[in-house]
Design brief:
Blueprint: H1 12-20, H2 25-32, E1 37-38, H3 39-45, H4 51-63, E2 67-71, E3 79-83, H5 85-88, H6 91-100, H7 114-124, E4 131-137, E5 140-147, E6 150-155, E7 163-167, H8 169-177, H9 182-187, E8 192-195, H10 197-205
Parallel strand pairs: 4-7
Antiparallel strand pairs: 1-3, 2-3, 4-5, 5-6, 7-8
Length: 209
């Protein structure tokens, strides 16, 4: 059930943790960094959290003004959750926290979600050209656009993409580390590519790991 526990501490750090310090809260925020998501998308991205727990975290974050929800117009007509302007201010904090944790050993076994890989791609990208990509990761579709010096990611179908990529997050992550393995990944079925394969090579290559 939702919690209203507080540290009862006037320190700003303690007050921040009153808002986002509950288990899974910051990971819910992470899943919304790239744009609005349906409850089912957030739930699927956090396999270690129960539906009730994700519901509680979203409700708490909404109550604190970090998250809001709205209903999409027809034909979608579904409810999505998204960060408020104040909630979006958490992005540099989460990214800095991730960079700080780079020395923490990986758990075994470890999962790797689509949002994490796409945030890494966006943060490390140094594109030299313009292109639009349809990226499908674990049955979720994202629009990735590049222009010189900038890469953007948003959920949903693109219009007239230059290339389509279909794979899983660990494979995409591995190819960002070693783009030369692209042809092998296509050959063994770990990645499917349609359209401009050269544009896909550029997407994988034009980043700083």
């Amino acid at each position: 059930m939702p919690t209203s526990r507080s540290y009862g501490d006037a320190c700003a750090t303690a007050r921040a943790l009153d808002v986002v310090g509950e288990r899974w809260a910051l990971l819910v925020v992470r899943e919304l960094l790239l744009g609005p998501q349906r409850f089912s998308d957030v739930r699927r991205a956090l396999p270690g959290a129960s539906s009730n727990l994700v519901t509680d975290r979203l409700r708490e974050l909404e109550g604190h003004g970090v998250v809001t929800r709205r209903k999409l117009p027809p034909p979608a007509a579904s409810t999505v959750y998204e960060l408020t302007e104040w909630g979006r201010e958490l992005e540099p904090i989460l990214l800095a926290l991730g960079a700080w944790a780079s020395r923490v050993p990986l758990p075994r076994p470890a999962t790797l979600g689509a949002t994490s890989v796409l945030l890494f791609l966006r943060g490390s990208a140094r594109p030299r050209g313009s292109a639009c990509y349809r990226v499908e990761l674990d049955s979720r579709v994202w629009t990735v656009r590049t222009e010189p010096g900038l890469l953007t990611v948003e959920p949903g179908e693109p219009t007239a993409p230059d290339a389509t990529i279909r794979t899983d997050p660990p494979t995409l992550n591995a190819l960002l580390e070693k783009p030369s393995d692209l042809e092998a990944a296509i050959e063994d079925g770990r990645m499917a590519v349609e359209g401009d394969r050269k544009a896909v090579r550029r997407l994988l290559r034009d980043h700083e790991g």
